[in-house]
TrEMBL record:
Domain (Transglutaminase-like) ranges: 313-406
Chief location bin: cytoplasm
Protein name per UniProt: Coagulation factor XIII A chain
Organism superkingdom: Eukaryota
Protein residues bound to Ca(2+): N443, D445, E492, E497
Enzyme class: transferase
Gene Ontology annotations of biological process type: blood coagulation, fibrin clot formation
GO cellular component, one term: cytoplasm
Signal peptide extent: none
Cofactor binding note from Swiss-Prot or TrEMBL: Binds 1 Ca(2+) ion per subunit.
Amino acid sequence: MSETMSTNEENKPPLNGRRAIPPNYSNDEENEVPEMEAFGVIPRGFNPRDYLRVVDIYMFKDPHEVNKQEHHTDKYYNPRLIVRRGQAFQIQIDFNRPYRPETDQFWLEFLMGRYPQQNKGTYIPILVGNVLKPGQWGAKIIHRENNSIRLSVMSSATCIIGRFRLYVAVLTPFGILRTRRNSATDTYILFNPWCQLDAVYLDDEKERQEYVLNDVGVVFHGNAEDIKSRSWSYGQFEENILDACLFLMDKAELELSGRGNPVKICRVASAVINSRDDDGVLVGSWNNSYDYGVAPSAWTGSVDILLEYYSSKQPVRYGQCWVFAGVFNTFLRCLGIPARLITNYSSAHDNNANLRLDIFLDDEGKVDTRLTKDSIWNYHCWNEAWMTRPDLPVGFGGWQVVDGTPQETSDGMYRCGPASVQAIKHGHVCFQFDAPFVYAEVNGDVFFTRMEKNGTQVVENIDTTRIGQLIVTKEVGGDGMMDITEEYKFREGSDEERLALETAVMYGVKKQSIQDTTYQPQTDVEMDFQAQKVVLGNDFKVTITFRNKSRKSYTATTYLSGNIVFYTGVTKSEFKKHSFSAKLEPSSSRSFDIMIRSSEYMNELLEQASFHFFVTARINETGKILAMQKAVVLEIPTLRIKTKGEMVAGRETSVIVEFTNPLKQTLENVMLRLEGPGVLRTIKKQFGRIPMNSTLTWEVKFTPMQPGLRRLIASLNSDALRHVYGELNVQIQKP
């Protein structure tokens, strides 16, 4: 082919033999729409000005006007019309003369993408009729005055969501006259949890306020014995966030025609939230080094992440599970799908999905890190999205698990869900998508297994209650915690729980029987392990207690191993080893205290201040082993946020962020962030260092625009200390 190929040819997307038009998965691209579409040869003397002509279109798109008020879209910081599907909205058309229904004919056209087609839902012509049918496209005139008419337009409750272009077409004898392309009349159509015909319909107004309209949330972390919480700014209404969320679907190459289906949207979004295999939004990093990026603990919300991705089109560094879940929650709420962020404490990452997490011990009862491949995350965050599941049998709609954290591949990509919570609870894990993986995350058993020299495995202990011991989300209308463990599983040990497990096994979840391995526990001696609660940087003590219930004397050779762990349960290093021999008198209890000094752990510490203790004791007289493990999370100091005087919309005000360094060392490379959705965009400030025991003070001046109750969220990040947060609710008065 010659070098001088025309540019027109080059720009054409490649066709493939199976389809007449190229795939249509960009909401951004447009086609040329003719302003005059002639029916044949146009006679001389034809003047389009002689016919009905559109002079202006008025969209009622300001936040205080009827459309955004009735459609609950008045919070979006976006100048265009935003409506929810399956619900009527109003527009006004001004013509060059009064409209005469007997002779004039006009219609509306909504178009999306580069190849609009009526059967794909990307070209929607709407004729004006006398009656609106619920949940179907239509328009009727509700007011006529002089040259103007006001229309009520109904959208379909199943239409695709995204940004449509609007044209008004007028019929003349010689052709169709159309309005000029005008981006000011572009209309965003979103999901509608207020509409009974919509797949995401949610019937409780308080829940809709929380799961669709609340732009701040709470992330629960730490561990089940020591729950910590922090605020997260979802910011789904902030400037350009809606466009950024629509861009994610373009990036995921979801056909425009599939964008009315929340199941499809969740499935592709769970892949595009992480950067594995598709250059998605966030790069995961769990190794405590965050060069050329932001540490996961430093983010205060989703807005910065989504806007950076939208402008650079490159994955943003770095995320961990709550960051993936926070961004995913913003995406879902922004598009109108009810969503909430979930924390599962002691979440199993079961590499071979056999509902059994193996912790291998060597001869002495120490953990064998070479053989132990499964890990138990202190906690893991995912999302639930609310929708019907027409692709499953009746009864599996409602909350669906979706997870954007890259853990395992599903159909060849790092993604997870949507999986029905109801199906997981009852063990019906045959129903798509990824239910067995989620079932294992909340239901596995922990096996402590000792490898004998000859290769036999001896099971020393089985912990059936540890995995998924607590599953929580933020309560509706408050910042407290709501326990939703019962939505995922029946009570431990109940008949229903056994039945759900047998069902899951029948549907292909692998469960090894205990009969394959020898298991004879030592029943007449009990061991317990407790750790003192303490602030990071201090010494603390741990206590091991034995209870000898028999009438014999025993001696127990006891070994304590203290490890610094990532919150994913993966060990970084062992910082404490301690062995002792315990003499156990008949029918009595004995406790042993062990001091853990800050000098032993501080220089090894990871950002979440998580320790993991293994305690193993061999009863010398019987050769039996007692084994326990426990996660301990230290208290991390908080930031204080204070306001100066009262806050009034439109007037400059200031807040002060304070922090006192509690460590016995200087903090280096300190970075502070402050944001408040609807009040101020993220502000960052670098401080070189904070010496020990000294206090840093940072004053930020800003002008709040909207009155109402808002939340400020701050984070501090440094080389030695991360996960430092502070928050403050502020009431902004009317001027």
